[in-house]
Design goal:
Elements lengths: L2 H26 L7 H30 L18 E7 L4 H12 L9 E7 L4 H10 L2 E4 L6 H10 L6 E6 L10 H9 L11
Parallel strand pairs: 1-2, 1-4, 2-3
Length: about 200
């Protein structure tokens, strides 16, 4: 049995059981004899569930009608890929936690690794964080004050960098190795290429 057939069968069974559930809710659970307020609340709850399930049915039906489509991006020469600034915002997170995130960022794949510039954006101006950046071979941007919190930290960092593309991470985020930097680039260059790049 094909994957699509199994999936569609599962979706149909899900819809059937959902309809059975709604029928049960309508005829066997509404507090008809409990009073006016309870009945109104029960009807509102049933209505919310019904709307949610019907919306889910629409998504299921759309999924069943459309065959699985895999979009293959066109090949783009490596020299056309732009520089990317990876900004990691931190305030007072432990250095050990920050190390995990920054280290993972250094392993992100991109056609030209020389065009990926990683910066720790530290609005705490901590010497140990600056040392971490140096040890991992990434940039360090200390923020002179803590105005406007994270947005102020990023705005300060953006005033020090100039790559056309930006990827931001929190201090506790661990990106996958195949980060969609390439997809970000596809979207950014769609207007500059001869072909429409629909990859996201």
């Amino acid at each position: 049995m094909k994957y699509e057939t199994k999936r569609n069968l599962l979706l149909i069974l899900t819809m059937v059981f959902s309809v059975i559930y709604l029928i049960w809710r309508l005829f066997f659970t509404l507090p008809i004899s409990a009073g006016g307020i309870q009945l109104v609340c029960g009807i509102l709850l049933f209505w919310a569930e019904a709307v949610t399930i019907l919306g889910t049915f629409e998504l299921y039906w759309s999924k069943m009608r459309n065959a699985a489509k895999e979009i293959t991006p066109i090949e783009i020469p490596e020299e056309l890929y732009p520089h990317v600034d990876v900004l990691i915002a931190t305030h007072n997170e432990p250095v050990d936690l920050l190390y995990t995130t920054v280290n993972a960022c250094t392993f992100m794949e991109y056609p030209d690794k020389e065009k990926v510039h990683i910066y720790i954006c530290d609005d705490g101006n901590r010497p140990e964080v600056e040392k971490l950046a140096k040890d991992l071979g990434v940039g360090y941007i200390g923020c002179p004050d803590n105005q406007h919190a994270k947005s102020g930290n990023y705005n300060h960092a953006l005033s020090k960098t100039n790559s056309p593309l930006i990827a931001t991470f929190d201090a506790d985020m661990i990106p996958q190795r195949k980060i969609p930097l390439r997809k970000i680039w596809y979207g950014a260059c769609a207007e500059q290429c001869d072909h429409f790049l629909a990859v996201l």
